[in-house]
Amino acid sequence: MEISFECTQCGRCCHDLRLTLSVAEARVWAGRGHWVDLLVEGWPWPETYNADGDPDDPASQWRLATSFPVTVGDVPFRVNVRLVARHEGACPYLLPDMRCGNYDARPRICRIYPLESRPFEAMVPARRLCPPEAWGEGLPVLERDGLAADPQAASILAAHRAAMIEDVAVKERLVRVMGWAETAMAGEGLAVCEVAPAVLLEALDVAERGAPEAPLAWRIVTNRESTRAMLADLDCPARLVAAGYGFLGSFSDLG
Ligand code: SF4
Ligand code: SF4
To answer: Any idea of the CA torsion for 121, 169, 33, 102, to the nearest 10 degrees?
Structure first.
């Protein structure tokens, strides 16, 4: 099966950004004074049950490869930390004619869009920001049988995915350096750690060299009372928050 596509340069993907960056890319982005948030989600991951994930489930294997273990109370979790360039409105590099003013140094995620960055997820055109006229027969082939048709795009996508795995160790040290120990439950939302660019760069410098040995006292943030109560039954520390500042929720603030 083929999916054909040609960018119309509508600029939609360069607005209201949430660009997942590698550590190296985050250094460049923050080094230019732009904010990079930490978005954190976690999965309960009992060590006595399928500690290595489901070998037949690509999503489970990807979670395992891109996360690190923590305990929340006495409950083992795996936590994924994403470094994300988040920007309301137009990207600071977007030019008035919708061209990228950072073309040669733009992050990999910009180079591969609208391809799907996660290996276990199929790319669905309807879920992309690109307008209808960007898709259709007669345009260059973007994807063939679920794989990027263009070898260069495939190579950039592979490099992006590899960085998500290789960066886990430094991200694990980064949260310890920053003393950040809150995660959302995966599927329910994302805990947001907003950090000034200069502070992030300094913390990354320290994290590249090492990190405090003392374990962090992790807790869950949730905007659902039902989740908080369920976690309380497990003696799992949790904090109820309203979606918005510090928490990006998938659900409204309901019980
Ligand atoms: S860096 Fe360039 S391609 Fe990426 S969001 Fe900004 S303007 Fe768009
Ligand atoms: S949203 Fe799609 S069509 Fe529009 S600029 Fe981005 S990649 Fe191109």
So the answer is: -50
